[in-house]
Amino acid sequence: MVRMSAEERRESVIRAAMSEFARGGYYGTSTEAIAKRVGVSQPYLFRLFPSKKAMFLAVAERCLQDVRRVFEESSDGLHGDEALHAMAEAYMRLIAERPERLQMQLQVYVTVSAAEAAGDHEFGEMVRKGWLELWDAVHVPLGGDIGGTTSFMAVGMLVNALAAMGFPSGHRVWEGLYLSARPQQGPAAG
Fold first, then answer.
1. Over the range 94-111, which residues count as b (16 or more CB within 10 Å of their CB) and which as e?
2. Is residue 189 very low, low, confident or very high in pLDDT (cuts 50, 70, 90)?
3. Would residue 79 be called left, alpha or beta, if left means φ above 0 and alpha means ψ between -120 and 50 degrees?
C-alpha cells in the first residue's frame, strides 16, 4: 500500500470536502462525512485543517481559483469578443462537466451572506478577494472595459441561477446569453 504525504492527503480532503460542502453547505455538512469520504479519522482531518471553517475556506478558495484558471486559460492570447466567447464557453463546460463547482459557488455565497449577517467577516474577506481575482481575469482580456466586464459577470451569475434551476442546454433561456456582455468598441473604459 502506497502512503500519501500530508500534502497529498490534504488535497484529497479538499476534493472530498468540495463534494460534501457543495451538497450540504457549510452548516449542513459534518466533518465526519468528509473524513468518511476521504477514509481518515476526524482527528487526522483536524491535523490537516485546524477547523471546519479552515477546511471550508480552503475549498471555497480552490473553487474560485479553479474558475479563475478556466477564464485565464481559455482567454490566453485572445481579446474582446474572442476572449468573451472563449471564457463563456469554457465556464459553461466547467459547470456542465463538474456541477459540484457550481453547487460549491452557490454554497459559498450563501455561507458568506449568513456569516456576514452574524458578524463573522472572515468568509467574506476571502471570497471578496477571490471574486476580485475573477473580475481581473475577465477584465483584462475584455480590454479593461468596465461595462463589458460587469455584463459578463452579471450574465455569469444569471448562468449560475439558470443552471442551478435545472434549465437544460438548448432551452430558449440560454439563447444569446453572452451577447449582451460584449465589450464596447473604442477606448477602454477602465
1. bbeeeebbbbbbbbbeeb
2. very low
3. beta
| Residue 108: HSE in the Cβ half-sphere, 13 Å Cα cutoff | 29
- Domain ranges in the chain are 57-181
For residues 11 and 14, give the distance between their C-alpha atoms in angstroms, rounded to a whole number.
5
Residue 5 pLDDT class (50, 70, 90 cuts): confident
Q: Quote the CA–CA distance of 61 and 126 in Å, as a whole number.
A: 7
Question: For the segment 77-95, what is each residue's pLDDT rounded down to a tens digit?
Answer: 999 999 999 999 999 999 9
Cα dihedral 18, 163, 78, 133, rounded to 10, equals -40
CA distance 11 to 110: 24
Task: At 80, give phi and psi (nearest 5°).
Answer: 60, -135
Pick from 92, 102, 93: which is nearest to 18 by CA?
102
Unique residue bearing C-alpha cell 479538499: 14
The predicted model scores a pTM of: 0.86
